[in-house]
Structures are given as structure tokens and as C-alpha cells.
């Protein structure tokens, strides 16, 4: 091949490489500019999958406490039990000894004159033993269990709820009345608007009974007086 033909061939090859490089750079710049124009990539969520659907350690959060307002009704489960056991033991012992002698004594004579009566100086000697032992045991058990609906009287700024409740039952000639009052923390009220009496502070429970059944078990006034005097 002659020299002009080789030079022409080299020139064409150089132009071809130059064109490819320019084309590649142009495409890269165009892609970068297009990416800048489109902004950050948008991540499309897979679906409406929740964390509890795939997490092995997910625990359901506790339900939110109910909103308590004045005049709301809260059911109180009253369950109070008390037991008192008292054991006592009293032991007393007293020992005594005495001796007495009558050396001089007078008596009235036939004419009401005074005459000596202790001619032989009579004497008395004796001992006294006194022992008292008392053993006592007292077991007192009380329990009360019922449900009562209480009305919210006030809600304090710190979340404390003031409650009052009253419940009365009348059957024929008998009458029963229950009263309850106290304060409870709002978080101690369950979502179903129930609470336990043991969570109530300053708890006051009153139970009043009247009627024929109560009168049949009531102690009469004479027995009460004897219990108060209790001479023995």
C-alpha cells in the first residue's frame, strides 16, 4: 500500500474513535442531566404490610385509657375482706398469810356495863392463796363483695378521679343501702370502664340495713345495759 493510502486509513480510524468517544460522553451527560431533572428516586411501598405482619418480637401496645369526664359512670367491683385474730392469756397468783390475836375486848353486862370479853386472848392464824388464770381467743372475719355503679364527681388536674356511688335495695319489709366514695387514678380504670375497690384511695364504704330481718337479729336494750355494766 502506498503512503497516501496508509495516511488516509489512519486518519479515518482516528476520526471514528473520536466520534465514539464524543458520543459516549454525550450519552453519559444526557443521562446524568435526565436523572437530575427527575429528582430523587421514589421508593414505592411494597404493599399495606404492617410491622406486626412480619415481626417475630412485635407486642401489641396496651390500649389507651378511656377519657373520663364528669358525670361518667364507672363500675366498681367491691371485694373487701378483713380478718382479725387475737390470742390473750392472763395468769395471776397471790399468796398471803395472816395471824391475829385478840388481847383486849369488851362486852356489855347485864346492867349494860362494860366487861372484859377476851379472857384467854383468842388468836387466829391462817393463809390465803388466790390464783386467777384466764385464756381468751378471738377470731373475727368480715367480707363484703358486690358491684356498684359510681358517678364521676370531679376530675383533678393530675388525673385523679373523684367517685361517689349509692345503691339501695328494698324487698318487702327490708331495706339495704350501700354507699361508696373515694379517689382513683385515671390509669387504674380499665378500658371497659370498670375498676376495683382496692385501687381507690380514701375509700369509704357504708352499708345500712333496716327491716324485719335486721330487727330479729338486733340486741335488745336490756342486754346492752348488762354488757355495759358487766359486773362479773
Write the layout of secondary structure elements.
Layout: H1 3-38, H2 51-54, E1 73-101, E2 106-108, E3 114-116, E4 123-155, E5 160-171, E6 174-185, E7 194-196, E8 201-211, H3 212-217, H4 221-229
Parallel strand pairs: 1-7
Antiparallel strand pairs: 1-4, 2-3, 4-5, 5-6, 6-8
What do you see in this structure?
It is found in: Bacterial flagellum basal body; Cell outer membrane. It comes from Planctopirus hydrillae. Among the domains are: 72-84 and 143-217, no CATH class; 87-137, no CATH class. It is built from four helices and eight strands. The protein is α+β, with helices and mostly antiparallel strands. The strands form two sheets. A six-stranded mixed sheet has the order 7-1-4-5-6-8. The longest helix has 36 residues, at 3-38.
What is the helix content? 10-25%
- The N- and C-terminal alpha carbons lie at a distance of 153 Å
**Total beta-strand segments:** 8
Q: What's the main sheet like?
A: 6 strands, mixed
Order the strands across the largest sheet as they lie in space: 7-1-4-5-6-8
What structural class do helix, strand and pairing data support?
Answer: alpha+beta
Q: Please, what is the average pLDDT?
A: 80
InterPro entries: Flag_Lring (IPR000527)
Family: Belongs to the FlgH family.
Pfam families: FlgH
Main location: other
Amino acid at each position: 500500500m502506498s503512503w497516501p493510502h496508509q495516511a488516509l486509513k489512519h486518519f479515518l480510524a482516528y476520526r471514528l474513535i473520536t466520534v465514539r468517544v464524543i458520543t459516549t460522553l454525550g450519552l453519559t451527560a444526557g443521562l446524568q442531566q435526565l436523572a437530575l431533572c427527575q429528582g430523587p428516586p421514589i421508593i414505592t411501598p411494597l404493599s399495606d404490610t404492617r410491622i406486626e405482619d412480619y415481626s417475630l418480637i412485635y407486642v401489641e401496645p396496651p390500649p389507651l385509657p378511656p377519657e373520663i369526664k364528669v358525670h361518667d359512670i364507672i363500675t366498681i367491683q367491691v371485694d373487701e375482706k378483713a380478718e382479725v385474730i387475737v390470742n390473750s392469756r392472763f395468769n395471776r397468783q397471790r399468796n398471803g398469810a395472816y395471824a391475829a390475836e385478840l388481847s383486849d375486848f369488851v362486852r356489855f353486862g347485864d346492867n349494860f356495863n362494860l366487861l372484859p370479853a377476851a379472857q384467854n386472848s383468842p388468836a387466829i392464824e391462817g393463809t390465803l392463796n388466790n390464783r386467777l388464770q384466764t385464756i381468751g381467743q378471738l377470731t373475727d372475719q368480715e367480707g363484703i363483695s358486690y358491684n356498684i355503679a359510681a358517678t364521676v364527681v370531679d376530675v383533678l388536674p393530675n388525673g385523679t378521679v373523684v367517685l361517689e356511688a349509692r345503691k339501695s335495695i328494698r324487698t318487702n319489709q327490708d331495706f339495704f343501702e350501700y354507699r361508696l366514695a373515694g379517689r382513683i387514678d385515671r390509669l387504674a380504670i380499665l378500658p371497659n370502664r370498670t375498676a376495683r375497690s382496692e385501687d381507690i384511695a380514701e375509700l369509704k364504704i357504708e352499708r345500712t340495713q333496716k327491716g324485719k330481718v335486721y330487727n330479729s337479729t338486733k340486741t335488745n336494750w336490756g342486754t346492752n345495759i348488762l354488757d355495759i355494766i358487766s359486773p362479773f
